[in-house]
Amino acid sequence: MSVSGQGAVKSRVRFAQWVLSTETASGPPIHGAECAECGEVSDGADDWDGPQMWCLQHAGRTGHTLFRGTVTGYFRASMQEVL
Ligand SMILES: [Zn+2]
Question: What highest taxon heads this organism's lineage (predicted)?
Fold first, then answer.
């Protein structure tokens, strides 16, 4: 979109079909856990084993019992077709 010297707005619209896919080249999904009571977070890991062990250790140390599990990964959007 651009604005010309007279204040008129010009825009160009293009319709396209986009597809979203999992991106693995940027690294594997990272698993983690966060205490829902104090906000402390575990280290990231390639699977759930480390974060779940962290939850149990955190519960034993603090008495906090509710945790949020997270998986962080990448997606790649690519244009499939210009309509
Ligand atoms: Zn906590």
Answer: Bacteria
Å from CA of 19 to ligand 1 middle: 39
What are 3's strand-pairing partners? 9
Interval between CA 63 and ligand 1 midpoint (Å): 8
CA distance 14 to 18: 12
Start-end of H helices in 1-83: 49-62
**pLDDT, one tens digit for every residue, the chain (83 residues):** 555 556 788 877 778 899 999 998 888 999 999 999 999 999 999 999 999 999 999 999 999 999 999 999 999 999 997 77
Cα(12) to centroid of ligand 1, in Å? 51
Q: How far is the CA of 35 from the centre of ligand 1 (A)?
A: 5
